[in-house]
């Protein structure tokens, strides 16, 4: 499950766990996501001992906007749990449940299901909030949990160092909108593989049914929150860049890995023009965090 901030931070938060054995939209997807297209550089694996199943467990303290579009910063601690079966089926909180139905010649395509956390008007919405938060959403009401159903397509080039990914998902529950994520990332390592790095560009598009839930201001909300009413449209929700630096611990990362990550996203005009963002938020969104994760494999 994830929320808006998770979406934004996803690629970074999950860098250390994106290792197949092989809010408001709230905290990535968000604060690093998907992967929203970008998987970070992977700690080296022992080629002599591939495992059918891989379990990754991690945790990441992150300083980020309290909700997507917030000018207030907050500290959250994000857990991450991901399970892979070979290079076929994957499951994780930020990446959802998916199946590589096509996995050939650098292509991966298949169905995908994700959960998006809701948003609480009292704090900003992160279920992992430790300190900080925001009162800017008072009067806006809560946004419930949403399920998103769709699919993805990913192409790897340059021996897997360059990845292009796109996702299209239809929401239900907290929002009923259509959401599209695109991502391009470059992943590499130093000659001795003592450090791994990743840098990516990403963008999210959505229709009005989505954008109005998280950025629009209805007449009722306008009266309760003291904001001018505003109805958003369809278009670019946000675009940004993320970067990760990972240090594997022990041979083949057997003792886990530490990942330092940061991201910057800028909200698109379709939502940045909302009275909620203009008067109480900030279209520029910056996040930074440090993650630790370990993985286990078995047949």
Explain what you see.
This protein has 299 residues and is mainly beta. The chain has helices at 4-13, 208-214, 219-225, 269-272, 275-280, and strands at residues 53-65, 73-85, 89-92, 96-99, 102-104, 107-116, 129-132, 146-157, 162-173, 178-189, 196-206, 235-248, 257-267, 284-298. A 12-stranded antiparallel barrel has the order 1-2-3-4-6-8-9-10-11-12-13-14. The radius of gyration is 18 Å and the shape is globular. The two termini are 27 Å apart.
**Topology as H/E string?**
HEEEEEEEEEEEHHEEHHE
Structural class: mainly beta
Query: Biggest sheet: strands, sense, closure?
Result: 12 strands, antiparallel, barrel
Share of helix, binned: 10-25%
Number of strands: 14
Compute the gyration radius: what is it? 18 Å
Uncertain stretches: 11-42
What is the molecular shape?
globular
Whole-number average pLDDT?
87
Précis, in short:
The chain has helices at residues 4-13, 208-214, 219-225, 269-272, 275-280, and strands spanning 53-65, 73-85, 89-92, 96-99, 102-104, 107-116, 129-132, 146-157, 162-173, 178-189, 196-206, 235-248, 257-267, 284-298. It is 11% helix and 46% strand. Mean pLDDT is 87; it is low at 11-42.
Secondary structure layout plus pairing:
Blueprint: H1 4-13, E1 53-65, E2 73-85, E3 89-92, E4 96-99, E5 102-104, E6 107-116, E7 129-132, E8 146-157, E9 162-173, E10 178-189, E11 196-206, H2 208-214, H3 219-225, E12 235-248, E13 257-267, H4 269-272, H5 275-280, E14 284-298
Antiparallel strand pairs: 1-2, 1-14, 2-3, 2-7, 3-4, 4-6, 5-6, 6-8, 8-9, 9-10, 10-11, 11-12, 12-13, 13-14
């Amino acid at each position: 499950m994830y929320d808006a901030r998770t979406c934004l931070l996803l690629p970074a938060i999950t860098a250390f766990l994106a290792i197949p054995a092989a809010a408001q939209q709230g905290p990535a997807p968000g604060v690093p996501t998907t992967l929203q297209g970008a998987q970070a550089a992977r700690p080296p694996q022992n080629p002599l001992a591939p495992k059918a199943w891989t379990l990754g467990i991690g945790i990441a303290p992150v300083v980020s906007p309290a909700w997507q579009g917030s000018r207030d910063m907050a500290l959250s601690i994000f857990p991450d749990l991901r399970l892979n079966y070979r290079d076929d089926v994957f499951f994780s909180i930020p990446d959802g449940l998916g199946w590589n139905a096509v996995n050939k010649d650098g292509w991966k395509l298949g169905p995908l299901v994700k959960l998006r956390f809701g948003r609480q008007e009292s704090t900003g919405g992160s279920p992992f909030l430790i300190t900080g938060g925001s009162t800017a959403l008072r009067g806006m009401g809560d946004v419930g949990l949403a399920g998103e159903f769709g699919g993805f397509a990913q192409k790897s080039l340059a021996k897997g160092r360059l990845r292009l990914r796109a996702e299209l998902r239809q929401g239900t529950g907290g929002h009923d909108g259509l959401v599209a994520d695109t991502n391009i990332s470059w992943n590499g390592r130093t000659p001795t593989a003592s450090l791994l790095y990743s840098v990516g560009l990403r963008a999210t598009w959505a229709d009005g049914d989505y954008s109005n839930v998280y950025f629009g201001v209805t007449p009722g909300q306008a009266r309760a929150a003291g904001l001018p009413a505003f109805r958003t449209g369809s278009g670019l929700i946000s675009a940004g860049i993320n970067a990760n630096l990972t240090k594997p611990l022990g041979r083949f990362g057997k003792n886990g890995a530490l990942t330092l990550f940061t991201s910057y996203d800028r909200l698109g005009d379709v939502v940045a023009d909302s009275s909620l963002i203009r008067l109480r938020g900030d279209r520029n969104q910056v996040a930074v965090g440090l993650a630790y994760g370990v993985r286990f494999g078995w047949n």
